[in-house]
Amino acid sequence: MENSLIQMLQQIAPVLIVLLTLAAMVILWRKHRSVWLIVAIIADLVGLAFRGILLATPEIVRDQPSFFALWTLSALTFAIALLGYAIETAQRR
């Protein structure tokens, strides 16, 4: 019972983290309308899609070796876009 609870939390927590991050970025975008935030939101949605694919069909990792590389590329795009937004915001002040 305890192991199944831990496994469930391990699967739900990353999805919850992404959803909370997306919510924060959408709130920021509604106020600032930055292209950087749009790119970050899209990249985060792509990462969420990759996570969903992995949860639904774990065998894809075996069949598609480029899966994790593309997932990592979406995470890198997210990080660069968020940094771009931070720099843009800092330069406005």
Please, could you describe this protein's structure?
With 93 residues, the protein is an all-alpha fold. The chain has one domain (2-92). The protein is 89% helix and 0% strand. The protein has helices at residues 2-32, 35-56, 60-63, 67-92. Helix 1 runs antiparallel to helix 2 and helix 2 (35-56) packs antiparallel against helix 4. The termini are far apart. The mean pLDDT is 91.
Largest sheet, if any? none
Q: Oligomeric status of the shown chains?
A: single chain
Strand content: under 5%
N-to-C order of helices and strands: HHHH
Helix content: over 70%
How far is it from the N-terminal to the C-terminal residue, by CA?
Answer: 53 Å
How many structural domains can be distinguished in the coordinates?
1
Compose a concise summary of this entry.
The chain is built from four helices and no strands. It has one domain. By secondary structure, the chain is an all-alpha fold.
